[in-house]
TrEMBL record, chain A:
Species lineage: Bacteria, Candidatus Yonathiibacteriota
Annotated source species: Candidatus Yonathbacteria bacterium RIFCSPLOWO2_01_FULL_47_33b
Keywords from the named record: ATP synthesis, Cell membrane, CF(0), Coiled coil, Hydrogen ion transport, Ion transport, Membrane, Transmembrane, Transmembrane helix, Transport
The keyword Nucleus is annotated on this UniProt entry: no
Highest taxon listed in the record's lineage: Bacteria
Subcellular location: Cell membrane; Endomembrane system
InterPro entries hit by this protein: ATP_synth_b/b'su_bac/chlpt, ATP_synth_F0_bsu_bac, ATP_synthase_B_chain
Protein name per Swiss-Prot or TrEMBL: ATP synthase subunit b
Gene Ontology molecular function: any one: proton-transporting ATPase activity, rotational mechanism
Cellular component annotations (GO), alphabetically ordered: endomembrane system; plasma membrane; proton-transporting ATP synthase complex
Assigned protein family: Belongs to the ATPase B chain family.
TrEMBL record, chain B:
The UniProt record lists the keyword Magnesium: no
Taxonomy of the source species: Bacteria, Candidatus Yonathiibacteriota
Main location: membrane
Keyword Transport appears in the UniProt entry: yes
Name of the protein this chain belongs to: ATP synthase subunit a
Cellular component terms per the entry's GO annotation: plasma membrane; proton-transporting ATP synthase complex
Bilayer topology annotation: Multi-pass membrane protein
Keywords recorded for this protein, A-Z: ATP synthesis, Cell membrane, CF(0), Hydrogen ion transport, Ion transport, Membrane, Transmembrane, Transmembrane helix, Transport
Organism: Candidatus Yonathbacteria bacterium RIFCSPLOWO2_01_FULL_47_33b
UniProt record similarity statement: Belongs to the ATPase A chain family.
TM spans (from-to): 83-112, 133-154, 160-178, 190-208, 214-239
Single Gene Ontology MF annotation: proton-transporting ATP synthase activity, rotational mechanism
UniProt cross-references to PROSITE patterns, sorted A to Z: ATPASE_A
Length: 147, 247
Protein backbone atom coordinates (compact mmCIF):
# COMPACT_ATOMS: atom_id res chain seq x y z
CA UNK A 1 0.00 0.00 0.00
CA UNK A 2 2.77 2.35 1.03
CA UNK A 3 4.62 1.48 -2.14
CA UNK A 4 1.58 2.12 -4.34
CA UNK A 5 1.13 5.55 -2.81
CA UNK A 6 4.78 6.43 -3.41
CA UNK A 7 4.95 5.05 -6.94
CA UNK A 8 1.79 6.81 -8.08
CA UNK A 9 2.68 9.94 -6.17
CA UNK A 10 -0.57 10.08 -4.27
CA UNK A 11 -0.71 13.01 -1.93
CA UNK A 12 -3.80 13.88 0.11
CA UNK A 13 -3.21 17.57 -0.47
CA UNK A 14 -3.23 17.06 -4.23
CA UNK A 15 -6.33 14.87 -3.97
CA UNK A 16 -8.08 17.58 -2.00
CA UNK A 17 -7.00 20.28 -4.43
CA UNK A 18 -8.16 18.28 -7.45
CA UNK A 19 -11.46 17.70 -5.67
CA UNK A 20 -11.80 21.39 -4.94
CA UNK A 21 -10.89 22.18 -8.55
CA UNK A 22 -13.61 19.90 -9.75
CA UNK A 23 -16.08 21.41 -7.30
CA UNK A 24 -15.17 24.87 -8.51
CA UNK A 25 -15.64 23.82 -12.13
CA UNK A 26 -18.96 22.23 -11.23
CA UNK A 27 -20.09 25.44 -9.55
CA UNK A 28 -18.96 27.70 -12.40
CA UNK A 29 -20.48 25.54 -15.13
CA UNK A 30 -23.72 25.07 -13.23
CA UNK A 31 -24.00 28.79 -12.53
CA UNK A 32 -22.92 30.11 -15.92
CA UNK A 33 -23.58 27.34 -18.41
CA UNK A 34 -26.07 24.65 -17.45
CA UNK A 35 -28.63 26.80 -15.70
CA UNK A 36 -28.90 29.60 -18.27
CA UNK A 37 -28.83 27.25 -21.24
CA UNK A 38 -31.49 24.93 -19.83
CA UNK A 39 -33.57 27.92 -18.74
CA UNK A 40 -33.31 29.27 -22.27
CA UNK A 41 -34.43 25.93 -23.68
CA UNK A 42 -37.38 25.92 -21.29
CA UNK A 43 -38.32 29.47 -22.24
CA UNK A 44 -38.19 28.62 -25.93
CA UNK A 45 -40.20 25.44 -25.38
CA UNK A 46 -42.89 27.39 -23.51
CA UNK A 47 -42.93 29.95 -26.30
CA UNK A 48 -43.31 27.28 -28.98
CA UNK A 49 -46.11 25.60 -27.06
CA UNK A 50 -47.90 28.92 -26.80
CA UNK A 51 -47.33 29.68 -30.49
CA UNK A 52 -48.74 26.31 -31.50
CA UNK A 53 -51.75 26.81 -29.26
CA UNK A 54 -52.30 30.25 -30.76
CA UNK A 55 -52.05 28.88 -34.28
CA UNK A 56 -54.54 26.13 -33.48
CA UNK A 57 -56.94 28.64 -32.01
CA UNK A 58 -56.58 30.89 -35.05
CA UNK A 59 -57.28 27.96 -37.33
CA UNK A 60 -60.36 27.06 -35.33
CA UNK A 61 -61.55 30.63 -35.49
CA UNK A 62 -60.93 30.68 -39.21
CA UNK A 63 -63.05 27.56 -39.58
CA UNK A 64 -65.84 29.15 -37.58
CA UNK A 65 -65.64 32.30 -39.71
CA UNK A 66 -65.79 30.17 -42.84
CA UNK A 67 -68.94 28.46 -41.60
CA UNK A 68 -70.44 31.81 -40.65
CA UNK A 69 -69.60 33.19 -44.07
CA UNK A 70 -71.28 30.27 -45.84
CA UNK A 71 -74.31 30.68 -43.60
CA UNK A 72 -74.58 34.37 -44.32
CA UNK A 73 -74.18 33.81 -48.04
CA UNK A 74 -76.88 31.16 -48.08
CA UNK A 75 -79.22 33.37 -46.14
CA UNK A 76 -78.54 36.32 -48.42
CA UNK A 77 -79.16 34.25 -51.52
CA UNK A 78 -82.37 32.94 -50.07
CA UNK A 79 -83.56 36.39 -49.12
CA UNK A 80 -82.60 37.76 -52.55
CA UNK A 81 -84.58 35.02 -54.25
CA UNK A 82 -87.56 35.76 -52.07
CA UNK A 83 -87.40 39.43 -52.91
CA UNK A 84 -87.17 38.70 -56.62
CA UNK A 85 -90.11 36.34 -56.48
CA UNK A 86 -92.15 38.85 -54.54
CA UNK A 87 -91.26 41.61 -56.96
CA UNK A 88 -92.22 39.44 -59.90
CA UNK A 89 -95.54 38.59 -58.34
CA UNK A 90 -96.18 42.19 -57.58
CA UNK A 91 -95.22 43.21 -61.08
CA UNK A 92 -97.52 40.62 -62.59
CA UNK A 93 -100.43 41.88 -60.54
CA UNK A 94 -99.68 45.42 -61.58
CA UNK A 95 -99.44 44.44 -65.23
CA UNK A 96 -102.80 42.79 -65.04
CA UNK A 97 -104.32 45.87 -63.51
CA UNK A 98 -102.78 48.14 -66.09
CA UNK A 99 -103.96 45.94 -68.91
CA UNK A 100 -107.47 45.86 -67.56
CA UNK A 101 -107.46 49.57 -67.14
CA UNK A 102 -106.17 50.11 -70.62
CA UNK A 103 -108.75 47.76 -72.00
CA UNK A 104 -111.51 49.54 -70.17
CA UNK A 105 -110.26 52.86 -71.40
CA UNK A 106 -110.03 51.61 -74.94
CA UNK A 107 -113.55 50.24 -74.82
CA UNK A 108 -114.77 53.49 -73.38
CA UNK A 109 -113.04 55.50 -76.10
CA UNK A 110 -114.40 53.26 -78.78
CA UNK A 111 -117.90 53.63 -77.43
CA UNK A 112 -117.52 57.33 -77.25
CA UNK A 113 -116.25 57.52 -80.81
CA UNK A 114 -119.07 55.35 -82.05
CA UNK A 115 -121.64 57.44 -80.26
CA UNK A 116 -120.18 60.64 -81.61
CA UNK A 117 -120.01 59.29 -85.12
CA UNK A 118 -123.64 58.25 -84.92
CA UNK A 119 -124.68 61.61 -83.61
CA UNK A 120 -122.78 63.37 -86.35
CA UNK A 121 -124.28 61.06 -88.86
CA UNK A 122 -127.78 61.86 -87.63
CA UNK A 123 -127.03 65.53 -87.58
CA UNK A 124 -125.72 65.35 -91.13
CA UNK A 125 -128.82 63.55 -92.27
CA UNK A 126 -130.98 66.12 -90.53
CA UNK A 127 -128.98 68.90 -92.10
CA UNK A 128 -129.19 67.28 -95.47
CA UNK A 129 -132.93 66.86 -95.09
CA UNK A 130 -133.21 70.47 -94.19
CA UNK A 131 -131.09 71.43 -97.17
CA UNK A 132 -133.04 69.22 -99.50
CA UNK A 133 -136.23 70.80 -98.25
CA UNK A 134 -134.85 74.24 -98.76
CA UNK A 135 -133.65 73.38 -102.23
CA UNK A 136 -136.99 71.98 -103.06
CA UNK A 137 -138.66 75.14 -101.90
CA UNK A 138 -136.22 77.22 -103.91
CA UNK A 139 -136.74 75.08 -106.95
CA UNK A 140 -140.45 75.38 -106.57
CA UNK A 141 -140.18 79.17 -106.27
CA UNK A 142 -138.05 79.29 -109.36
CA UNK A 143 -140.55 77.25 -111.25
CA UNK A 144 -143.39 79.38 -110.11
CA UNK A 145 -141.58 82.62 -110.84
CA UNK A 146 -140.70 81.70 -114.30
CA UNK A 147 -143.21 82.89 -116.59
CA UNK B 1 22.04 15.61 -18.73
CA UNK B 2 19.53 14.83 -21.44
CA UNK B 3 19.15 11.12 -21.86
CA UNK B 4 18.32 9.32 -25.05
CA UNK B 5 16.13 6.64 -23.52
CA UNK B 6 12.48 7.04 -22.72
CA UNK B 7 11.82 8.30 -19.27
CA UNK B 8 8.45 7.31 -17.85
CA UNK B 9 7.22 8.26 -14.43
CA UNK B 10 3.99 6.91 -13.02
CA UNK B 11 3.78 9.84 -10.64
CA UNK B 12 3.32 13.39 -11.87
CA UNK B 13 6.42 15.52 -11.72
CA UNK B 14 6.56 18.26 -9.17
CA UNK B 15 7.31 21.65 -10.66
CA UNK B 16 7.13 23.79 -7.55
CA UNK B 17 5.60 24.33 -4.17
CA UNK B 18 2.82 26.74 -3.34
CA UNK B 19 1.82 27.33 0.29
CA UNK B 20 3.28 23.99 1.29
CA UNK B 21 1.36 22.18 -1.42
CA UNK B 22 3.42 20.39 -4.04
CA UNK B 23 2.41 21.83 -7.43
CA UNK B 24 2.57 19.10 -10.04
CA UNK B 25 2.38 19.49 -13.81
CA UNK B 26 -0.96 17.67 -13.86
CA UNK B 27 -2.33 20.17 -11.37
CA UNK B 28 -1.30 22.98 -13.70
CA UNK B 29 -2.97 21.10 -16.55
CA UNK B 30 -6.22 20.80 -14.62
CA UNK B 31 -6.11 24.57 -14.10
CA UNK B 32 -5.75 24.98 -17.88
CA UNK B 33 -8.79 22.74 -18.41
CA UNK B 34 -10.68 24.74 -15.81
CA UNK B 35 -9.79 27.93 -17.64
CA UNK B 36 -10.84 26.52 -21.06
CA UNK B 37 -14.21 25.34 -19.79
CA UNK B 38 -14.68 28.64 -17.99
CA UNK B 39 -14.09 30.39 -21.32
CA UNK B 40 -16.63 28.11 -23.02
CA UNK B 41 -19.19 28.91 -20.33
CA UNK B 42 -18.41 32.61 -20.67
CA UNK B 43 -18.84 32.64 -24.46
CA UNK B 44 -22.02 30.61 -24.46
CA UNK B 45 -23.44 32.70 -21.65
CA UNK B 46 -22.57 35.95 -23.39
CA UNK B 47 -24.19 35.00 -26.67
CA UNK B 48 -27.21 33.29 -25.17
CA UNK B 49 -30.36 34.28 -27.00
CA UNK B 50 -33.84 32.97 -27.74
CA UNK B 51 -32.85 32.52 -31.37
CA UNK B 52 -29.78 30.32 -30.93
CA UNK B 53 -26.51 30.65 -32.81
CA UNK B 54 -24.41 27.69 -33.92
CA UNK B 55 -22.53 27.19 -30.67
CA UNK B 56 -25.69 27.58 -28.64
CA UNK B 57 -27.55 25.08 -30.81
CA UNK B 58 -24.74 22.56 -30.35
CA UNK B 59 -24.60 23.11 -26.60
CA UNK B 60 -28.37 22.98 -26.25
CA UNK B 61 -28.71 19.81 -28.31
CA UNK B 62 -25.98 18.20 -26.22
CA UNK B 63 -27.49 19.26 -22.90
CA UNK B 64 -31.06 18.36 -23.74
CA UNK B 65 -29.98 15.04 -25.23
CA UNK B 66 -27.98 14.13 -22.12
CA UNK B 67 -30.74 15.31 -19.79
CA UNK B 68 -33.34 13.28 -21.69
CA UNK B 69 -31.09 10.23 -21.59
CA UNK B 70 -30.54 10.67 -17.84
CA UNK B 71 -34.26 11.07 -17.23
CA UNK B 72 -34.85 7.89 -19.21
CA UNK B 73 -32.19 5.98 -17.30
CA UNK B 74 -33.05 7.19 -13.81
CA UNK B 75 -36.80 7.22 -14.47
CA UNK B 76 -36.94 10.32 -12.31
CA UNK B 77 -36.91 13.75 -13.94
CA UNK B 78 -36.14 15.58 -10.70
CA UNK B 79 -33.17 13.41 -9.78
CA UNK B 80 -31.90 13.60 -13.35
CA UNK B 81 -32.07 17.39 -13.27
CA UNK B 82 -30.19 17.40 -9.95
CA UNK B 83 -27.44 15.03 -11.11
CA UNK B 84 -27.16 16.54 -14.59
CA UNK B 85 -24.50 19.14 -13.65
CA UNK B 86 -22.30 16.54 -11.95
CA UNK B 87 -22.47 13.97 -14.73
CA UNK B 88 -21.92 16.54 -17.46
CA UNK B 89 -19.09 18.24 -15.58
CA UNK B 90 -17.34 14.90 -15.08
CA UNK B 91 -17.63 14.27 -18.80
CA UNK B 92 -16.54 17.73 -19.88
CA UNK B 93 -13.64 17.87 -17.41
CA UNK B 94 -12.19 14.50 -18.44
CA UNK B 95 -12.98 14.91 -22.13
CA UNK B 96 -11.48 18.38 -22.42
CA UNK B 97 -8.34 17.21 -20.64
CA UNK B 98 -8.01 14.21 -22.96
CA UNK B 99 -8.76 16.33 -26.02
CA UNK B 100 -5.90 18.74 -25.44
CA UNK B 101 -3.36 16.19 -24.23
CA UNK B 102 -1.55 16.18 -27.59
CA UNK B 103 -1.42 19.94 -27.99
CA UNK B 104 2.16 20.81 -28.89
CA UNK B 105 3.98 22.10 -25.85
CA UNK B 106 2.24 19.85 -23.39
CA UNK B 107 4.88 17.41 -22.21
CA UNK B 108 7.64 19.02 -24.23
CA UNK B 109 8.01 22.42 -22.59
CA UNK B 110 9.62 22.10 -19.22
CA UNK B 111 12.85 22.43 -17.38
CA UNK B 112 15.76 20.35 -16.23
CA UNK B 113 16.39 19.63 -12.61
CA UNK B 114 19.92 20.12 -11.34
CA UNK B 115 20.39 16.36 -11.47
CA UNK B 116 19.69 16.34 -15.20
CA UNK B 117 16.11 15.05 -14.97
CA UNK B 118 13.58 16.68 -17.28
CA UNK B 119 10.22 17.85 -15.92
CA UNK B 120 7.55 19.00 -18.35
CA UNK B 121 5.51 21.99 -17.20
CA UNK B 122 2.24 20.45 -18.33
CA UNK B 123 1.27 16.80 -18.37
CA UNK B 124 -1.97 15.18 -19.48
CA UNK B 125 -4.29 15.59 -16.53
CA UNK B 126 -5.54 12.03 -16.27
CA UNK B 127 -2.06 10.49 -16.22
CA UNK B 128 -1.96 11.34 -12.56
CA UNK B 129 -3.74 9.00 -10.17
CA UNK B 130 -4.40 11.96 -7.85
CA UNK B 131 -6.80 13.48 -10.39
CA UNK B 132 -8.62 10.30 -11.28
CA UNK B 133 -8.81 9.23 -7.65
CA UNK B 134 -10.22 12.63 -6.66
CA UNK B 135 -12.89 12.32 -9.37
CA UNK B 136 -13.58 8.75 -8.29
CA UNK B 137 -14.01 9.77 -4.66
CA UNK B 138 -16.45 12.51 -5.66
CA UNK B 139 -18.37 10.11 -7.87
CA UNK B 140 -18.33 7.44 -5.12
CA UNK B 141 -19.67 9.76 -2.42
CA UNK B 142 -22.31 11.20 -4.70
CA UNK B 143 -23.51 7.68 -5.52
CA UNK B 144 -23.66 6.64 -1.86
CA UNK B 145 -25.29 9.87 -0.68
CA UNK B 146 -27.88 9.79 -3.44
CA UNK B 147 -28.74 6.23 -2.41
CA UNK B 148 -29.01 7.16 1.27
CA UNK B 149 -31.05 10.29 0.62
CA UNK B 150 -33.41 8.63 -1.86
CA UNK B 151 -34.00 5.36 0.01
CA UNK B 152 -33.20 6.39 3.59
CA UNK B 153 -30.15 5.17 5.53
CA UNK B 154 -31.84 2.01 6.84
CA UNK B 155 -33.24 0.76 3.58
CA UNK B 156 -30.05 1.62 1.74
CA UNK B 157 -27.97 -0.17 4.38
CA UNK B 158 -30.13 -3.26 3.98
CA UNK B 159 -28.56 -3.74 0.55
CA UNK B 160 -25.27 -4.53 2.25
CA UNK B 161 -26.23 -5.91 5.62
CA UNK B 162 -28.95 -8.46 5.12
CA UNK B 163 -29.56 -10.82 8.04
CA UNK B 164 -32.78 -12.41 6.79
CA UNK B 165 -30.92 -15.36 5.30
CA UNK B 166 -27.43 -16.73 4.94
CA UNK B 167 -27.51 -16.26 1.19
CA UNK B 168 -28.78 -12.72 1.58
CA UNK B 169 -25.96 -11.97 3.99
CA UNK B 170 -23.37 -13.29 1.58
CA UNK B 171 -24.86 -11.28 -1.30
CA UNK B 172 -24.75 -8.19 0.91
CA UNK B 173 -21.07 -8.72 1.62
CA UNK B 174 -20.36 -9.15 -2.09
CA UNK B 175 -22.31 -5.98 -2.83
CA UNK B 176 -20.28 -4.12 -0.25
CA UNK B 177 -17.03 -5.31 -1.77
CA UNK B 178 -18.05 -4.43 -5.31
CA UNK B 179 -19.11 -1.02 -4.04
CA UNK B 180 -15.67 -0.34 -2.58
CA UNK B 181 -13.93 -1.95 -5.55
CA UNK B 182 -15.36 0.83 -7.69
CA UNK B 183 -12.92 3.21 -6.06
CA UNK B 184 -10.12 1.22 -7.61
CA UNK B 185 -11.76 0.33 -10.91
CA UNK B 186 -12.95 3.86 -11.66
CA UNK B 187 -9.66 5.57 -10.93
CA UNK B 188 -7.37 2.98 -12.48
CA UNK B 189 -9.48 2.53 -15.61
CA UNK B 190 -9.20 6.19 -16.51
CA UNK B 191 -5.60 6.51 -15.37
CA UNK B 192 -4.52 3.32 -17.10
CA UNK B 193 -6.14 4.08 -20.43
CA UNK B 194 -4.79 7.59 -20.75
CA UNK B 195 -1.38 6.73 -19.32
CA UNK B 196 -1.03 3.76 -21.65
CA UNK B 197 -1.91 5.99 -24.60
CA UNK B 198 0.72 8.51 -23.59
CA UNK B 199 3.35 5.82 -23.18
CA UNK B 200 2.45 4.20 -26.49
CA UNK B 201 2.82 7.48 -28.33
CA UNK B 202 6.06 8.20 -26.52
CA UNK B 203 7.43 4.83 -27.64
CA UNK B 204 6.27 5.24 -31.23
CA UNK B 205 7.68 8.75 -31.36
CA UNK B 206 10.97 7.34 -30.20
CA UNK B 207 11.16 5.03 -33.23
CA UNK B 208 9.15 6.87 -35.92
CA UNK B 209 9.01 10.52 -34.95
CA UNK B 210 6.76 11.62 -37.83
CA UNK B 211 3.44 10.65 -39.51
CA UNK B 212 2.94 7.37 -37.65
CA UNK B 213 2.04 8.96 -34.30
CA UNK B 214 -0.80 10.91 -35.98
CA UNK B 215 -3.35 8.08 -36.40
CA UNK B 216 -2.38 6.80 -32.95
CA UNK B 217 -3.04 10.26 -31.54
CA UNK B 218 -6.42 10.38 -33.29
CA UNK B 219 -7.21 6.99 -31.80
CA UNK B 220 -6.09 8.18 -28.36
CA UNK B 221 -8.41 11.18 -28.62
CA UNK B 222 -11.20 8.72 -29.34
CA UNK B 223 -10.12 6.67 -26.33
CA UNK B 224 -10.14 9.89 -24.32
CA UNK B 225 -13.72 10.55 -25.39
CA UNK B 226 -14.72 6.98 -24.58
CA UNK B 227 -13.12 7.09 -21.14
CA UNK B 228 -14.82 10.39 -20.34
CA UNK B 229 -18.16 8.97 -21.46
CA UNK B 230 -17.57 5.73 -19.54
CA UNK B 231 -16.70 7.58 -16.35
CA UNK B 232 -19.82 9.76 -16.59
CA UNK B 233 -22.12 6.93 -17.69
CA UNK B 234 -20.92 4.51 -15.02
CA UNK B 235 -21.52 7.16 -12.39
CA UNK B 236 -25.03 7.54 -13.78
CA UNK B 237 -25.68 3.80 -13.82
CA UNK B 238 -24.34 3.27 -10.31
CA UNK B 239 -26.57 6.09 -9.08
CA UNK B 240 -29.46 4.28 -10.72
CA UNK B 241 -28.46 1.05 -8.96
CA UNK B 242 -28.07 2.92 -5.66
CA UNK B 243 -31.56 4.47 -5.81
CA UNK B 244 -33.21 1.20 -6.80
CA UNK B 245 -35.08 -0.52 -3.97
CA UNK B 246 -33.29 -3.55 -2.50
CA UNK B 247 -35.01 -6.83 -3.27
Amino acid sequence: MEQIITVFGINWKLLLIQGVNFGLLLFVLQRFLYKPVLAMVDVRRAKIVRAIKDAEQAEEELGLAEVEKAHILREATQKGDEIIVAAKKHAEGEEHLIMKDAHRKAVHLLNEAERRAEREHEEMIAKAEREVARMAVLAAEKVLRTP
Amino acid sequence: MAENGIHISLAAEQVGTFLGVPVTNTLLMSLVVLFLLGMLAFFVRKNLSLVPGRLQTLVETLFVGILDYMTETLEDAKLARKLFPLILTIFLFIFTANLIEFTPGIGSIGFYHPDGEFSPLLRSMNTDLNTTLALTLISFFVIEFTGVITLGALRYGRKFVNVTSVLGFMVGIIELFSEVARLVSFSFRLFGNIFAGEVMILVIQHFVPMVLPVPIMAFEVFVGFMQAAIFALLTLFFVKIAVTEPH
